[in-house]
Design a protein that fits this description.
Blueprint: H1 3-21, E1 23-29, H2 31-41, E2 46-50, E3 59-64, H3 73-76, E4 78-83, H4 92-101, E5 109-114, E6 118-123, H5 128-134, E7 137-138, E8 141-142, E9 144-148, E10 160-167, H6 172-180, H7 184-192, E11 196-198, E12 201-202, E13 215-218, E14 222-232, E15 238-245
Antiparallel strand pairs: 1-3, 2-3, 4-6, 4-9, 5-6, 7-8, 10-15, 11-12, 11-13, 13-14, 14-15
């Protein structure tokens, strides 16, 4: 079995358990994994994806039996805040690396949101106390960790740099070229090398037509969103707005 088959088989097991216990939840899924699970189970089960706060990127697949009621976020998630000196300028990678050094697996952790002097984390509830007591450093920077309520988590707001372009079509290679200032040849090469994902799914088709709101990810380069598709110029080119994640 490959990783996708193993994931779906496990989801099948916990969905069956939900029918008997009322509610079961997976560990944290990537957006791509969540899409696979939704495609497989949404029609046949009461399925929700929740990351502990609105607009979370990493989420748990939650199967519920409607006859047993609903679930409580407080039972499925814990939240922590990490405080550090502003001059330490810790990043998502720094915080995640420190957590991995504690022997914690990535699938037990949800989103990490970093600010100027603090970061927040969502995790499985059984890890909250352990992390708050154990995590004291990220690299050479000191950290003070504390458990907080889910209500104290910041909202996830997209930070985008918007630029306006005109393109000949809404093909993936064309929009990718405009988004990252690449030649069509380079954009096509990235797609062929399986480095490009569309809405969290790998895409090997340069001719794929994109719609407004489409998310494009390029491994080792970053992400962009087709935020707006406008009218056409006199020469038939399409006005678009592209947001680059910063």
């Amino acid at each position: 079995m490959d990783q996708q088959d193993l994931l779906l088989a496990h989801m099948g097991d916990i969905s069956k358990k939900a029918a008997k216990t009322g509610c079961t939840a997976s560990r944290f899924l990537t957006p791509a994994q969540a899409i696979l699970v939704e495609q497989k189970f949404k029609k046949n089960h009461t399925l929700t994806f929740d990351g502990g706060f609105d607009n979370a990127e990493r989420t748990r697949a939650i199967f519920t039996n409607p006859d047993w009621g609903s679930y409580s976020r407080e039972e499925l998630f814990a939240a922590l805040r990490f405080n550090y000196r502003p001059q330490d300028k810790l990043t998502h990678r720094d915080i995640l690396g420190a957590l991995m050094a504690l022997g914690i697996k990535r699938e037990t952790l949800g989103d990490i949101i970093c600010g100027d002097s603090s970061a927040t984390l969502v995790c499985l509830p059984e890890l909250g106390s352990y992390i708050s007591e154990s995590l004291t450093k990220a690299g050479r920077a000191g950290i003070t960790a504390s458990v907080i309520s889910l209500d104290e988590l910041p909202s996830r707001e997209e930070s985008l740099t918007i630029k306006t372009e005109t393109v000949a079509s809404l093909r993936l290679d064309v929009v990718l070229s405009a988004a990252f200032n690449l030649s069509r040849t380079k954009a096509s090469a990235l797609i062929a090398a399986n480095r490009v994902s569309v809405n969290h799914q790998p895409c090997l088709h340069p001719s794929k037509e994109l719609a407004e709101g489409t998310l494009i990810s390029v491994r080792s380069m970053g992400r962009a969103k087709l935020t707006e598709v406008g009218g056409t110029s006199k020469k038939g080119r399409i006005f678009i707005k592209i947001g680059l994640y910063v």
